[in-house]
Amino acid sequence: MTDDSHDGDPTGRPDASDENRTRADRNATATDIASGRTRNSSAARSRPDRLRPETDGGRVTDRPEDRGAIFEEDGDRELDRGPFQQWVANSISNPERTYRAMFYVATIFFLFTTLFPFYWLLMVALTPEGRQQDIVLTPNGFNPGAFVEVFQVIPFHWYVFNSFVIATASTIIVLVIASLAGYAFGRLEFPGKIPLMLLVLVISFFPPAAFFIPLNDLFNTQFAVLEPITGDGSLYNTPGAMVLPLSAIFMPLAIFILTTFYAQIPDGLEDAARVEGTTRLGALFRVIIPLSAPGVATAGVLTFIAVYNEFFFSFLMTDGQPENWAPILEGILGYQGQYEVMYHLMAAASIIGVIPVAILVIVAQEKIVSGLTAGALKE
Amino acid sequence: MARVRLENITKRYGDVVAVDDVSLEIEDGEFVTFVGPSGCGKSTTMETVAGLTRPSEGRVYIGDDEVTDLAPKDRGVAMVFQNIALFPHMDVFENISFGLRLRTYDDEEINRRVEGAADIVQLEGMLDRMPDELSGGQRQRVAIARAIVRNPDVFLMDEPLANLDAKLRVHMRTELQRLHRELGTTVIYVTHDQAEAMTMSDRIAVLDEGGLQQIAPPLTCYNEPANLFVAGFIGSPSMNFADAKLVAGGVETDHFVVELDHRNVPGASVGDAVTLGVRPEDVHLATGAESIAHPTDAIGARTDVLEPMGDEIFVYLVLGDGDARSMEEDPATASDQLLMSVTPETELREEQSVEVVLDRSNVHLFDATTGEALVHGITDLDSSGREPGTTSTEADS
Description:
The structure holds two protein chains of two kinds.
Chain A: H1 2-6, H2 21-35, H3 42-56, H4 59-72, H5 75-80, H6 83-93, H7 95-126, H8 146-153, H9 156-187, H10 193-205, H11 208-220, H12 227-230, H13 240-263, H14 267-276, H15 280-291, H16 293-309, H17 312-316, H18 328-333, H19 343-375
Helix pairs in contact in A: 2-3, 6-7, 7-19, 8-19, 9-13, 9-16, 10-13, 13-16, 14-15, 16-19
Chain B: E1 4-13, E2 16-26, E3 31-35, H1 42-50, E4 57-62, E5 65-66, E6 77-80, H2 92-102, H3 107-120, H4 136-148, E7 154-158, H5 166-183, E8 186-191, H6 194-200, E9 203-208, E10 211-216, H7 218-223, H8 228-233, E11 240-247, E12 250-253, E13 257-259, E14 273-278, E15 283-285, E16 299-308, E17 313-319, E18 337-342, E19 353-358, E20 363-367, E21 373-376
Parallel strand pairs in B: 3-8, 3-9, 6-7, 7-8
Antiparallel strand pairs in B: 1-2, 1-4, 4-5, 9-10, 11-12, 11-14, 12-13, 14-20, 15-19, 16-17, 16-19, 17-18, 20-21
């Protein structure tokens, strides 16, 4: 509407820059007069004169003028704009730049929030013992020996190994069982399928702590059958005490991921495999799982990381000794003595503990990518 | 190589009967096509042979063994699927050798057989390609090679050409025929395309609504259809049908009468409602009808639409005054319309009054209520009451 009022008036456009506010005021009056809008009454004419400079310093009149300038491609006007307005105008006419800028802002933000804690850990680890106060952005001193010391103070590698074994075992159990469940839920029709899936979902809603007391009781009970395996017949202080509950807790998520993936494999491929000579199970392992590699990798990595990071059961299901399958968590807490806490070693141990997972994710990522490119399910 | 026998196969999905009491026997080395419209149960029938579907009732035999409860892998069958179903994560060699590698063959034997199979389907030099690098026809060949490499007793092909373009389809059709001739394996072929069924098969099994309508050599299905469904399904364009009534000395429709001795129509008596069927190529212009041995009396008609096909012209005829014609009705079943096929030299215009005759030796009569065929060809009047050429094949099936 404002464009209408200024159209017949090429000379009346005010300057865009902020230092010309007074001139803008004058121009605004002139514009209004020229546009004929103020012919209605003298009161109408005087009101903008009086009000505009007071309320917003003439910008009200500037903006519509600028927009007009953009769309009319008035080359001279470009030179008169302030840097911010020019940037806005550029963004409107060239939105790609804005999106790219937003992408970088978001990326840098997320990278910062993710990587800064690692940076901070590294600073703490590199700072010699007893000087942890007052670390700003650089370490107080330089002590890379902490990364060696962590293995000398306690057998930290043993804890890492324990955690790795527990996480790997849980992941294998979860993938095998969830694959069978995913096959049944994703590819078969049977009565009670939906209620069963809902049951799995409901179980995943239970807080893990709710299971702890009965499980702890159970794992401390001695069973004669287990004696040849665990010595005293109880699961406490064995990897089983962590693998069993953690596998169960992270199973529903894997089942749902794999169900979705397996359901998408065309029936014809499974039929072809079965006619060619596999059983249903053979078709699952030879055709369906390889073609669902991205889903299997996703479920596997999520399970591995979740079990590796798990605190509650890992902390309570062993007595904290590495020979009793205490996981990495107990190792890190092991640097905490009664009279001193060796923060630099805890930080170094934390960084070392991340390495296996980091390697796994990098490897799995390659698998995911290769699975996607080799898949090519065009049916 | 083996015979295949289906005994009273029925397959139900809940309340839906997909296959309804189908029994048939396929000879060793025979090429049998299951044909029918979508949802007629032809694919399900084949899947019971493959073992992918367990029949609700009935038994399946391959060779002399009952295989009803055997897993697909133990039946000695190989299958080519409509969607081709190559394993996308394996190259051509791995795809073809998949079945062999699951059994205990040594590497040398596998290589020899894969190369032999690739040779037959002309895939030399492509064994290391991935399926997504192949064209549609090449993929189909890989699927066929995968099927033949195991020397199966029975080949099952479920619309293998349906996803190919028209030109390639005709090409692959001849290749499949050649392959069948070379290998001599029993083939069961499923298609909804009656042209494929007619050209490739030793025998055609026509199915509709889960039931077997007729199993016979292609030309028998064409010339002596067992019932109205087969008559309408086999042949393109479809046979003309007209509601008619059996009267003394003839069959009477709304617009014309075909003379015949009603005593030669078994299973029907005077006054019964029948359906008269005649194929478009058995409708002739009265002016050129001298060559026809058993023409009917001339029938007055008006041409409606001409469809020049190149080698012939399809002429849509409107019988009687033609005003009552409704556009919605299928010309094949509308009693006052007739589709005629004439040679391209025939000079005809649209909206022209013509006189046509039917070739009585190729007129079919069907029971109007059951749809079963009564008579194929009416020539009895020409030899003083005797019926020389009447092929009164009352189809038992």
